[in-house]
Amino acid sequence: MRKLTWKWNISLILLAVVILLGATAGTYFWQIRLQKPLEVNMGQMHHMDGGAKHAHEGELAKEGVSEQAARSCKEITAGVSDAPVQEFRLTAAQTIQELDNGQSEKVWAFNGITPGPEIRVTEGDRVRVVLDNQDIQEGVTVHWHGIVLPCSQDGVAGVTQDAVKPGEQFIYEFVAVSPGTYWYHSHQASSEQVKKGLLGRFIVEPKKETFDYDQEESILLQQLNGTFLVNGSAKGWSVEAAPGEKLRLRVINAANDTFDMSVNGASYRIIALDGHDLNEPGMLDHHDFNIGAGQRYDLLLQMPEQGKVILASEAAGLKVIVGVGSEPLTRPERTVFTFANYGAPVPNDSVERFIFDQNLQIKLDQNLFINTINGQSFHEIPPMVVAEGENVKITITNAGGGDHPFHLHGHTFRVLSRNGQPLQGSPVYLDTLLTQQGETFEVYVKADNPGLWMMHCHNLMHASMGMSMMFNYEGISTPYRVGTKSGNLPDL
Ligand SMILES: [Cu+2]
């Protein structure tokens, strides 16, 4: 009898634990997955409170944009030009992909494979991409990560277009103005669609090379339904290279995690970040680098006379093997690369003389169930509102919840300081800034691309849990809507 009571108590405790866990999971899914707005106009939200006073306290900024007076994002397109046209086709469809580790994965892919086809153009080309959706029911889009382009071509469901439903088509067209390493991915339900494989590499070759190398290769890191891949390979990616050859490796992080990448077998330089060249990049010898979600690092290295060079994230099991022969020695002592004092300043750089029209603050944080910006989440976060031509300073603080790689669409921003210390080396221009807990960065954005632009954490799980907001220009409207009514949920 006594034994039975004891068992009964254990059962009650177990039941209580199960109910508690169930309630927690239920609240989580309700908050994250179900509590989506019916309909929100991302161009008509209220002005950001707090931060500095806005210099242009016009009616438009206070009350949102009136549809009649405003210029529509849809009308902001790549103007007519005689730039050479490069046309590509991307078709999104469900498929099964056999991985080189023997696993077969149900994937959503562009042109039947993930990562999708590498799109490669030359600086100044007019890029035309015809997107078809074969059978992705919730619709797809293509966002051109890091590319500065006209608002209507940014590929954000519910902001710059409707998600493209099965049987439908959308044609993207823009001029690839800035050479560098970029990538593309769906921005409809991005946390699911990117994980399932709707992404690819996008390389804009320069008209004139800044750096000297014999060959180059782009290296895309992704997490496909939980499996880490390098250019689609689970076992590691091999690059052929002869002794003495100079290589440029364009490393793209298309996953949600930050990867601690080690380079063994050769010294190297980091010649570009997010596609933008660094000035006088020095030789790195025992440095790892942390590449945040969405970021790109371009490396330049020379093959040794003997043996391989190995680029790897040991934690994620990601590996790139360059060349053949003996394994490189693994350095015991390591330093993590920082751009804060790398390379050289540009003479007569005007950064200290900048006068900012606006000083805005962003605090990235989390509570039990959601990720927040300034204490709020996604469509409830008031947008930053700027006027064309303004110089905007944004102070970004990571107050908790892990790494937050902060991405701004449609612009390249310049990093001014880290934790109060101005950058000492090369100017650093990024579209995605990795912030780690406790760090504060100041960045400068030139408001020179009128539109409605998303600004979000590129850990897409964090974005789906609310860490996403808008950077809106005064006087720009959109005919599209985010919400369950339209089915446009850019960061679900
Ligand atoms: Cu985050």
From TrEMBL:
Keyword Repeat set for record: no
Coiled coil: none
Residue intervals of the Plastocyanin-like domain: 98-208, 226-305, 366-473
InterPro entries attached to this UniProt entry: Cu-oxidase-like_N, Cu-oxidase_2nd, Cu-oxidase_C, Cu-oxidase_fam, Cu_oxidase_CS, Cu_oxidase_Cu_BS, Cupredoxin
Domain of life: Bacteria
Signal peptide start-end: none
Pfam family, one: Cu-oxidase_2
Keyword Metal-binding in annotation: yes
Keywords: Metal-binding, Oxidoreductase
Entry-linked PANTHER family: MULTI-COPPER OXIDASE
This protein's name: Multicopper oxidase family protein
